[in-house]
């Protein structure tokens, strides 16, 4: 049996299986720990371990569409899953994440949703429940750029609620969104002061990018080694994707699928030139 030395030991078995199974594997959702993702997770861990104090630090994870913000949050949630106490039947949720609604609905939807969580008051109140029963130690709000689709008034309400959460909840608040969301947050001087920012930058020709391609090569179930480690391929991939994480993953997945289907079993510089290389519609990055 071939040894598939170009693959990580745990992944060699996948190179053995049939074509469609491998295509399915290549396209499946997975988590890849990139340099920036690792740094962002370390920041989140640090925040989580913060002892309660009057003004808890807040973090804004921002970057272009498809840079992996939600992926990082999901990974962090997996690392801090709810724990059920069988005796009491109580589930504690160390990290609670929610998403901004995708579009404004009737009324002050942002305000109402978030107010429901933050209205101060005794039992029954959602904040109280989170902190006592659920022992929540961090609140995450993803896709905060959705606030920009609201009216001016909705935006002010939303920012007020964020300020309330940041000031009074006494658990660290993490928000994730695009650069526009960052700018909206900065229009509130108090929030500007409270939030530290972590920027997920677009990929450029760095050692970290070389590492990302190398690690993709080491897990893609191709039977031959590929040229993802060469400078030429690195430049080509950056050219074709403008350094957006989502496009890089999609592009490598596409050429890997092609290499499995056409029997070449390897990704070379030419793989990126193929006439029949049909790239998914992520060109403007806003496909979803
Ligand atoms: N660390 C990662 N491991 C594996 N795939 C990733 C990773 N980061 C990004 N991706 C790929 O990029 C896609 C987009 O990532 P994600 O949804 O996290 O981006 P986002 O920054 O939240 O975008 P948006 O601004 O649209 O919410 C994912 O569906 C996945 O295919
Ligand atoms: Mg997202």
UniProtKB/TrEMBL annotation:
Domain AAA+ ATPase: 55-244
InterPro entries the UniProt entry points to: AAA+_ATPase (IPR003593), ExeA_AAA_ATPase_DNA-bind (IPR052026), P-loop_NTPase (IPR027417), TniB (IPR008868)
Superkingdom per UniProt: Bacteria
Protein name: AAA+ ATPase domain-containing protein
């Amino acid at each position: 049996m071939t040894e598939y030395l170009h693959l990580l030991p745990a992944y060699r078995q996948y190179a053995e299986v049939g074509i469609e199974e491998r295509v399915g594997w290549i396209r499946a959702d997975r988590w890849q720990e990139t340099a920036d993702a690792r740094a962002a997770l370390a920041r989140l861990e640090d925040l989580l371990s913060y002892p309660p104090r009057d003004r808890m630090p807040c973090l804004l994870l921002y970057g272009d569409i498809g840079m992996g913000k939600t992926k990082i949050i999901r990974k962090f949630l997996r690392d801090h899953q709810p724990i059920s106490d069988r005796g009491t039947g109580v589930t504690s949720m160390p990290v609670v994440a929610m998403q901004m609604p995708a579009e404004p609905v009737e009324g002050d939807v942002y305000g109402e949703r978030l107010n429901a969580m933050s209205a101060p008051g005794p039992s029954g109140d959602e904040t109280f429940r989170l902190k006592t029963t659920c022992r929540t130690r961090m609140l995450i709000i993803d896709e905060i750029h959705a606030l920009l689709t609201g009216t001016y008034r909705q935006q002010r309400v939303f920012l007020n609620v964020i300020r309330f959460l940041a000031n009074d909840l006494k658990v660290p608040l993490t928000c994730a969104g695009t650069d526009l969301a960052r700018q909206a947050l900065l229009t509130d001087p108090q929030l500007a002061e409270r939030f530290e920012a972590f920027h997920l930058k677009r990929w450029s020709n760095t050692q970290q990018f070389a590492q990302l391609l190398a690690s993709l090569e080491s897990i893609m179930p191709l039977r031959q080694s590929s040229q993802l480690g060469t400078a030429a391929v690195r430049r080509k991939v950056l050219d074709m994707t403008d350094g957006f994480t989502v496009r890089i993953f999609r592009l490598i997945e596409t050429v890997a699928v092609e290499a499995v289907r056409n029997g070449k079993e390897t990704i070379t510089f030419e793989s990126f030139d193929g006439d029949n290389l049909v790239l998914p519609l992520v060109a403007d990055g806003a496909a979803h």
